[in-house]
Amino acid sequence: MNYPVDKLDQAINEASNWAVTGWSMTFGSRNVAANSLKEAQELKPSFPNKAEALSYWVDVDTVGKETASHGEKAKAALQNGDVNSAKNSLYLARYLEKRFNETTPTWGPIYVAIEDLS
Q: pTM of this prediction?
């Protein structure tokens, strides 16, 4: 079991910061960009979809941190030689990530690599 821990550490860090680094996202009928939690917080109070944008990015922040927690559990399981527990944790992280990105770029490749270990 030689899966590089640095890949897990990178994914944990990335997921923990999803709301900070963000991605392209627009809100309202005028497609106003709010590409991170900070940008959503900085929207004018008069913007009718500010609450929606804030809710979205707060959810991204919460889910990102939750997936990072599952990543930490997977890392600990791998360090203890428990590939099945690692797979279970990474499955949950990938499942949660699908809410925001169907291709699961953060957790999907790691899950597949861990599957190949067993």
A: 0.91
